[in-house]
Amino acid sequence: MTSREIVQRTVRFQKPPRLAANIGSLGVSDVAGIPVRAPESFKPEVPGQDEWGCVWEKTAVPNMGQVKGHPLADIRDLDRLPVPDYDCDSRYVDVPAALDRFEAAGKYITGGIFMVLFERMHSIHGFENVLTELVTDRPAMEALADRIADVHIGYVRNVARRFGNRVHAFGMTDDWGTQQAAFVSSDMWMDFFFPRYKRIFDAMHEAGYDVWVHSCGKVNEIVEGYIRAGVDAVNLQQPRALGIEEMGQRFRGRITFESLADIQHTLPTNDRRKVAEDVEALMQHWATPEGGFVFSDYGDNAAIGVGDPDIKRYLYQRFSEYSERVYGEPLPEPVVPQGG
């Protein structure tokens, strides 16, 4: 069975023969993302500027960085906000050859959106400004959110028009939580954000694509909203912060989880006993015999303080044992050697 079939059976709860996996650090992945680039016409005005005009800075510690320059200080300037041009042909020049490679390898192929809605709102306008003006100037925040949603729906439709069913899903990011709760109330999320997410996700489903969302923090209530909006799989990398048993009781079998041992409370300890406990809890409370769980990676060991080069291989072995026990087959052998 191909990787594509394994992931699709997992997401649809159709009894895959093994766990689906996306473990780049060990050279094993059932998933591959299409290489969509910035168009040839995009010229940053300053170093670190992205296509939305946001300026990124990094610290001395390796990480993705954060937005330090917000292009829309005054919301009245919305009409002058730069937005990505997803109609530009030069953006997609690398995709056909990549699709040929991925299809030959039987991969489950995804498009990607970085900062799909809320994160893009506050990267553009500032975190405090967005949270304040959701209350004090809702029409302005609606206009900003709708602009972002329209751009991303345009991207989805471009991919669908150009590549059709050669792509199988869209993955995206939107971090929503602190360590204690979401940034906004459930009522506000459902009233303001839900209809815009649903519009984006509906466009993906209409194109035949599964919908995957990553979200950090204690986002328990947000997951319910994601399910109602049509999310097929949710990437959660802090399962201990969420409460593994609680999340399983509420959502097991209703959505596919993509996760690993907790990147804050477990992996940085390099403690094999804690890693094994996380694997057991996740397979017991989040996975089902029919599917619903994807074993994934966190690609930046330095950023989360993973000092043991073999801890992820140990994690992989524990998930492989459960894969064989629950579904019949172990995970493929890692490509990266021990200690690598």
Shape: globular
Uncertain ranges? none
Mean pLDDT: 95
- Fraction of residues in helix: 40-55%
Please tell me how large the radius of gyration is.
20 Å
The rounded distance between the terminal residues' Cα atoms is 29 Å
Number of helices: 12
Report the sheet-strand fraction.
Answer: 5-15%
The tally of beta strands, per DSSP, is: 11
Structural class: alpha/beta
Strand order of the largest sheet: 2-1-11-10-9-8-7-6-3
Can you summarize the main beta sheet?
A: 9 strands, mixed
SSE sequence, one letter per element: HEEEEEHEHHHEHEHEHHEHEHH
Written description of the protein model:
The protein is of the alpha/beta class and 340 residues long. It has a domain at 1-30 and 256-340. 41% of the residues lie in helices and 13% in strands. It contains 12 helices and 11 strands. The protein has helices at residues 3-11, 95-104, 118-125, 127-136, 138-163, 186-206, 220-229, 239-242, 244-251, 272-285, 301-304, 311-327; strands at 20-23, 28-29, 31-33, 55-57, 66-69, 108-113, 169-173, 210-214, 233-235, 256-259, 293-296. The strands form 2 sheets. Strands 2-1-11-10-9-8-7-6-3 form a 9-stranded mixed sheet. A two-stranded antiparallel ribbon has the order 4-5. Strand 1 (20-23) and strand 2 (28-29) form a beta hairpin. Helix 3 (118-125) crosses helix 4 (127-136), helix 4 (127-136) packs across helix 5 and helix 10 (272-285) runs parallel beside helix 12 (311-327). The longest helix has 26 residues, at 138-163. The chain is globular and about 60 Å long. The relative contact order is 0.14. The model has no long low-confidence stretch (mean pLDDT 95).
